[in-house]
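Project standup — Tuesday

K.O.: blocked on the structure for the chain from last sprint. Re-posting the sequence here as requested.
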Amino acid sequence: MTLLCAVLVASSVVLLVPPPAARGLSRLSPVETSGVARRGGRGTRALVVVAALLVVVAAGLTAGASGAVVALASTIACFTAVRLIGLRRRGRASSAARTEVAHSCRVLAGQLRVGRIPAEALRVAAADCPVLYPAAALLDLGSDPVPRWRLDATLAGHDGLLVLARAWEVSNRTGAPLAPALERVSEALSEDVAIERLVFGEVSAARATGKIMAALPLCGIGIGYVIGGRPLQFLVSGPLGWACLLGGVLLATAGVSWIDWLSRSALQSQAVQ
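H.V.: unblocked you, prediction finished:
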């Protein structure tokens, strides 16, 4: 039983680490990377669900109803942990992308300030800013980079590219200077990142409280053994114990997920503002 639960936990952790092929996706454009990541994410979720079902069935066949209940409780806890870790990773990736877009606008504005024309400035800036490389490649082929920026702006953290596309388009049509607009875009995005980090620091206390609350049942089991009880034997010995085990795991995971949802909602509402 313990071995089966350990296999489930190990499988979840392994699936969180991108394979060597996926680590090379950083060379692709944001849209291409997102498409590959979505396909890989669907396959990973299906694989985890199948693995969890196999573990629960195998535990039930090996250790009876008590084994199936323990495996189900472990599955719920593992799924919750994997989901929360994935959400945190996506949140950090979105913040990093927003910072990169702000830096790209700053670099592009600097190239324009020294007297380069927009097309040449974009090519030079793309050498240091990967987020600009797809648009620069299109420009080298004689295409307009604006549609590419509008497409990339749909990705999390890349919304600043939409403002860049608008500024570029207006500058090409009217001849208005592009550098001041890009500097303002960079400053606005940098301020958004700073505010996001501030809000994240404010909600980190609530997230820490949720983690502590989730760990309290384990502390309670330890205290039960200290005072001479046998809580684990009770939890796996009969229907009442199984109900307590599943109920406790469900309440703990629901509480942690709810606190995480509240903190993400605060971050998203701040981003909208």
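K.O.: great, moving the ticket to review. Residues 76 and 206 are 22 Å apart (CA to CA). The two ends are 50 Å apart (CA to CA).
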